[in-house]
Every structure is written in C-alpha cells, then in structure tokens.
Amino acid sequence: MSQAPLVSLTGVSRHYDTLKALDDVTLDIRSGEWLSVMGPSGSGKSTLMNLLGALDRPTSGRIHVEGLELTAMSDAERVRFRRERVGIIFQQFHLLPYLDALENVMVAQHYHSLADADEARAALERVGLLDRAHHLPGQLSGGEQQRVCVARALVNRPRLILADEPTGNLDLENETKVLTLLRELHAEGHTLVTVTHAARVGNLADRRVELAHGRLADLTVHSEELERRYDEVLVQMWALEEDGRVPEATAWPRAASSSRPGRRSSSRRADATARAIWCGDGGWRRSCSRPRSTCPTRTSRLPRAAWSTSSIPRSRTASAASSGTHATARTAAPSLRATAAPFPSSPDVRSLDAAQALAERDGFAVLDVRDPDAFAAGHLARSGHLPLADLTARRGELPARDTAVLVIGADGVHARLAAEQLEALGYACTAWLDGDPVLSLRDHLERSPAAPLWRPSPFLVDALAHLPDPWSGQKRVLDLAAGAGRESVFLALRGYQVEAWDHDRGALERAQAMALHHGVTIETCVRDLEIRDPRLPVASHDVVMVFRFLHRPLFPRIAQAVAPGGWVVYETYLEGQERFGRPKHPRFLLHQGELPGHFPGFEIVRYEERTPDEGPMLARLLARRPNDSSGRERAP
C-alpha cells in the first residue's frame, strides 16, 4: 500500500478580485522529497508558498499537511501549525534588526516551546555562523543573513521546510553555501519545497514543476542534454515574459514521449506552461530584430561550465549511489536523437578572430570580462567591463537583451564561457574573440575608462533637458519602484542626489553596488509601495520618477511629494499591454488618457501614449508642479 503524501493540494485556487494568482492547482509532495517550483515573476510561486506555510487561505480547494487540513483550521490553529510543523526561509530574510543572530534564531524556539541558547548555537554552527552569533543583521552580509534564516528554519527540526527564492539575493559563493545546506537537510530526510527562478537551483531537486499564470505543469525531461536545453529555454522565456514580450501564443515545443525513472509526465504541459516564441527561421523572435547576416549559424559549443551544478551534489534521489540512500537515481537516457523530437535552436553564438572583431566591432556592444587589472592595462575603445564572475549578479549593468554583444576574455575559452552565459540570459546575438586580446589586438588597445553598456529609459534621457540643473541646488530625486536602479544611477552620474525606494532589498543592494562601480552613491529605502495607503514625504523632492509601476493609491502621494517647481517623470503600461505579456491585470494597466488626470494643477509639459503593433504599450508623462503662491521657486 502506497504511503500517503506529506503535503496534498486538491483543486486549490487563490483569487484577488479578478486576478487568479493560483487556479485549480492539484499537487502531492511525498515525505522526504525535494520539490522545486519554477516560473517567471508573477506566476503564483510565492502565493503557493504562502498557502503551504499557512500564511494565507485559499479561495477554494483543500490543503493537507501531515494529515492536517489547513483550510479547516482556525487562526490560532494555523499559528500553532506554523510554529510546530514548518520552517520557512524567506527571500527578504525578515530578521529582527535589533536582535543579534543568536537571538533571531531563539525567537523561533520561543514561539515553538522554550528558547534554548545551546540548540540555537548548534543551529548557527551548522550553517557556519557561530562566530557571528552576536552580530546584528545590519552587520552581516546578505549571504550571512540568509544562513541565519536557514538556522532559524531548522532549529525546531520541522519535517517540512519552505524556501522562497533562497538564493535570489546572493552571489555565487554564498549561493553555493546555502544550496549545500539545503542539500544536507534533504539528505537527512527533511521535505523541501523551494521556489526559484534559477535552473541551477531547480536542478538539485528530485522533481521540478512549473507555474505559469497560476496553472501547474510538471517539467518532463528525458536526458541530461535535453534537460540542459530546457533550462536554457526557461531562463530566456522568463526574461522575455518579465519584459512584457511574451504574448499568449505558441505552445511549448515538446519532446517525444519517453519514460524516465524519477520523473512524471504530464498531459497538461501544453496549456499550463508559459509560452515559447520562435521565429520562422529558428531562434527567439527577439533575435529576428537584427538581420541574420550579423549572426551566422553558430559553431559547436563548449560545455556550459558557468551554469554547472557539478560542484554541489544533487538531491538524495540524484546521488543515491554515493549517499547509500534507497532512491531511484537519475539514469542516462538513450541519445537525444533517439528519444526526443528536434529541439529548436537557441540564439546565435559565434567566434571571431582578431581581424573580424576589428572589422565588425561597430555593430556590437563590446564587453570585456577580464579581471580589473588586465582591463586597466589595455582594452578596445568603448569597451564595457564586467568580470566573468559578476555577470549574473551585476546583470543590471548589461545592455538590452536585443543588443549584439562582442565578448572579450583572457583567452578564447574564457570569452566563450561569458558568451554562453549571455545567451542563457536571453541575449539575441553574441560573439566572442577567439584568442588573447593582448597578443591579437596589441596595436588597438587603450587605457580609457570603461564605457557603460546599460541604458536608462529613453524617456528619462529625453526628459533630462527639462529637469532642473542639479548645480543650481534643485537636485533631490525620489525614484519609486527603482528595481535594478538604472535610472537612479543615471541621474546620480549627472550630479543629482537620488533616493531609491523598492520592496526588494536585494534589488536595492545591487543598485547601490552598481552606483559604487560607477563612482557615485545613491540612498536606498526598503518600502512596500503597494499597501492600501502608501505614505511619501511631503514637498520633499525636486524630481519624483516612476518607471513601469502602477498603484493608483500612490498618485496623490506622488503629487504631494513633489516640491514647488519640481517635476514628475512617469512611464508605465497602458491597457492593451496584456496582449504582449505581463502585466495582465487591469489594476496594473492605465486607461488611455488617464495618467495626466492624476496630477491636477500640474503643467503637463509632455504626454504621449505609445501603442506600437509589437508592444510594449506605454504612457509617458513629464509634468511640472507650479511654484508657491509667491511665484518664487522653493529655496534649496
């Protein structure tokens, strides 16, 4: 008789008005299994995690954990469930800032039963932080704070551990440490559910499922090569969808049916996964924006070492032979040609020799990925610089994904690895210099400063001529929903004092790091701007800017935050954008002509609505608040 699942969801939905965050999800999770839930932003991953952790209630359906029905529990019973039966690792840490690491771990013990300092120290020692036990969260790095969260989650020895983007804010070194901890917990018999964007994290799990628009589908893969290709497509597809470039279109290309131990097939794949878009001549639609002649057919590739998970053992299921745990291990399927249908090619990557690189460089953004000393010793003119190890963590400093990029490394292998990483991030056309630039480009190297490859919103660039001169004293800027911080850094480089607000602490940390790399500083503030009554300081800033974010209760607060004589720069999505991808819900989309009406009394200097056939649909506003009643500008 088969064992009952530890976690069971039956027909679970979570709706917010007309938005279906989860829609009829049915899922079983076995005791001791590691399940990875993947999907683009807004697909319902965190909603699912909140329901499993009894932090929210479903609109319909039933949830059972260890035989207990969460949907039938009272509020007090749900609190008891969270205390005693589940450990939660949050992406945003949620550590109490006035308690040190040891005390933060003991808080979980206090609500469970009795606080035990020795057990809390043992948990910190387990995650390698015993020597940091008496440091406050503000004195710890992001990776160390996340490991405190892991210690807090495991100190009460729960059977079920939920991890929401556990490595989303971490560099590669700290990501590896956290993943190793999760792998060890799983080997000890804990049931893990992780939410992630990263294929590297998903590959460690026994089973991966994908959420798309609130619907669930199993990911079925039939060989290591096919799995690698699925990972590449997922990374590119989610990047496109989050940019609002994926319409409700073509179904996912699927391999021929084949059994594989440890994986379940799903007949729901076609209508439940996010959509993949391919051009008529192969490749992503984005790659068709540039003539194919600039990106000839790529040559064979080196292994994608930079995305490998070989340094971290996979799950117990995947490493059964070495762990001795009784489980079905991954087995090598027959060759891809024998087991799968032809798989569409990904964007082009090609090699260039020195002569080709010099002849064609004007058609590329040049990215030098060597170490800082080598770059400073000499590089091609107008080269950007980003070390290979920082490509993912500092991806906000990369150019737009439809840009053709020429990569220069310490040698051909180094450059190709970087080009492959860019391809996995969704870049339409990448090339790499096959050789040592010091030898092959010796007569063309110079020692100029690195060129910035990233670009802010073109609307902000155009609006800059209207904004007050920062040297006149009017230079205080508030960037709301700042995200990657490109617009913040752009204005900071021009002398403005910028304060960036966002709910995502990790994004703000990356924005600060980006500013420092460019020799400027920005202030940041972690603030949820989507609450019912958001508050902003009054008449405090000379420029308030918002890009691709909409929360209507925020409009009057923005108007109040602008100082007399100050400016609003606003760009966000119009209704109709839902045809091209996210956002889809009406509350995130402006009606035509709506935006100017939210700033009564402001002088509308520029307003435009862009509705190109290929998207995105955008409204753009540049407005100025009148001076005070005396007719004078506010003194700085």
Q: What's the arrangement of strands in the largest beta sheet?
A: 18-17-16-19-20-22-21
Mean pLDDT: 75
The CATH superfamily of the domain at 1-216 is known as: P-loop containing nucleotide triphosphate hydrolases
**Which structural class do you get from the secondary structure elements?**
alpha/beta
* Fraction of helical residues: 25-40%
The assigned CATH architecture of the domain at 1-216 is: 3-Layer(aba) Sandwich
Ranges where pLDDT stays below 50 over 5 or more residues in a row are 245-347, 629-636
CATH-defined topology of the domain at 1-216: Rossmann fold
The top-level CATH class of the domain at 1-216 is: Alpha Beta
- Beta percentage is 15-25%
Largest sheet: 7 strands, mixed
The multimeric state of the shown protein is single chain
- From the alpha-carbon coordinates, what is the Rg to the nearest angstrom? 26 Å
Number of strands: 22
Describe this structure in words.
This protein is of the alpha/beta class and 636 residues long. Strands 18-17-16-19-20-22-21 form a 7-stranded mixed beta sheet. 26% of the residues lie in helices and 20% in strands. Strand 21 (603-610) and strand 22 form a beta hairpin.
